[in-house]
Amino acid sequence: MLDNRGGTFYKAYTRCCINFITLRLKRNCMRFSRMYLPTLKEEPAEAEVISHRLMLRAGMVRRLAAGIYSYLPMGLMALRNVEAIIRQEMNRAGAQELLLPAVQPAELWQESGRWDFYGKELLRITDRHQRNFCFGPTHEEVITDLVRHEVRSYRQLPLNLYQIQTKFRDEIRPRFGLMRGREFIMKDAYSFDVDDAAAGISYQGMREAYSRIFSLCGLDFRAVEADSGAIGGSFSHEFVVLAESGEDAVASCQACAYAANVEKAEGRFAAADKCAADAAAPAAAAVATPDRESVESVAAFFKVDPGAILKSMIFESDRGFCLVVVPGDREVNEIKVKAALGAEWLEIPAPSRIADELGLPVGYLGPVDTVLPLLVDRQVPELEAVVCGANRHGFHLQGVIWGRDFSCNKVADLVQVRAGDRCPRCGGLLQIDRGIEVGHIFKLGTKYSEKLKATFLDQEGQERPLVMGCYGIGVGRTVAAAIEQHYDENGICFPYAIAPFKVALLNLDLKSAEVTAACEALYAELEGRGIAVLYDDRNERPGVKFKDADLIGAPLRLTLGRKSFERGIIEARLRDGSSNAELPLADRAPLWSLLAELAADDSRIPS
RNA sequence: CGGGAUGUGGCUCAGCCCGGUAGAGCACUGCGUUCGGGACGCAGGGGUCGGAGGUUCAAAUCCUCUCAUCCCGACCA
User: Fold this and answer.
1) Alpha carbon A237 to chain centroid distance?
2) Is it the case that residue A1 has pLDDT exceeding 50?
């Protein structure tokens, strides 16, 4: 039979293969009547952010447990589209795809030191032999382990490996649907280089690839400087999609290119011409201020600006207790405090603990004659004759002067920037926007390669640790972010590139053989051109079809009913409402050029 | 983990205060009418009221415990 190349078996087999391939090509075309696409007319009660609501209503996802979601066909299609863009751009940038295990042995995490450090977010699992494993929240350990066994020489570098895979982080509070799930799909890439300079080139390459990826996804985003958090490392950028519902806040300069997460952002601080403490100034005096525990109420009491009050807060870290002092009109930035202390963890102890263990009254804390180590914001020494708590219940000190009444050699930038602060680069005005972090790139350095002994021999035969970088993209979050940025009161308005269906074809008159035949013909042609189309052939009233078409957000809606058929036209309406044209039924050319325009318009990459 | 709330047909919710027959709308099935922006009529199917315990002649309703989910704060793609 194997030799029967020209025979009937072979022909049948060939036809079978061709059918299979054709079916594969058509996988993104569907009849609505056959598709598992459970749309919801009513608002699901559990969802509060737009993307979550719309993804539930549009039949893209369903919740299985807190922070754990099933992707239905529509949702998966959107996800695959984002993945395709990611793959294309990662491969273009020279990265290679692989797939690492989701479940990882505890030993590796103990070796890197993160088994204890990562905390409760690490979902730990025990197998039948009582061996410890975890469900991977990230893959630095695994990739480093893989590479250390294979990479021996500088000749094998640079190397950039990535995967698209399910992660699990046991978030304290999962919320917002796919925006902060516990189980989520992430593209993570890891680069390995010979030295810091080469690692910088890898980092830059990823930065460019990320910009292309998010541009291709049709997103309005910013690449901003960021804190590197638990992953560690020296340098990092976040890619933030601007959206009202975002959990992150980004400070950006209105005059130059500076942009940073507010956790990281610095305001320029002009060291004013500070006059030395005036010895003649009256001594600080204690004033009874009963029930004045907030900065606002104290400011009102003394009839001064909140900026002339010192806000004093006790923090506890692995370095012990510490009193942090900032101007009263400022918020403390805990990330900066943590960095200034060089602490591993940081928290605000409960007022009861402060009272019991330190004997101090919250609401009346101050830096004068305190027993606690001080940490002072750099703006504090510039203030004169300020008010602060007297460390005595019901009393504040007035006329307190830096350098005379208290001082401290630990002075640092500790406050959160706010709109109107000055840019640290150019002095321009900073503005604050909310956004969703969809990508994050880190320069890791040798943190993991040293711990896991991933080394190579350089040109001089010296053994050196690999210099690493790591680069993540939340794939599901990117889909959600795209929806947050592209919707209206009727539903999703997908950017063309990630739209599960590019075209929604509505047959408004199933009973008419001619209309149906025209729709079927058009459907087949769109299919033949590889355009993802959802053909609404359901026996439903027109209103239902319009509502569903709007909800699922196909960029182009083609409508054919009896009236339009008799006039020889198809109605072509863009989902974003920007155009509503009548195309001739007899001539397809205008339709093809419209579709080509849509596709091209959306794939622009800003230089 | 702290603070707040909610669990009642598939979905959205009423009923709970003041204990006594489990309800509405949507969805689903059948028939008929309708048919360019989520139609209408008639007839149906579907619920151990999150779970356990208690009080009571009697519990969706009151009490205790428990589980789950959601919202506000500390983590992160």
Assistant:
1) 11
2) no
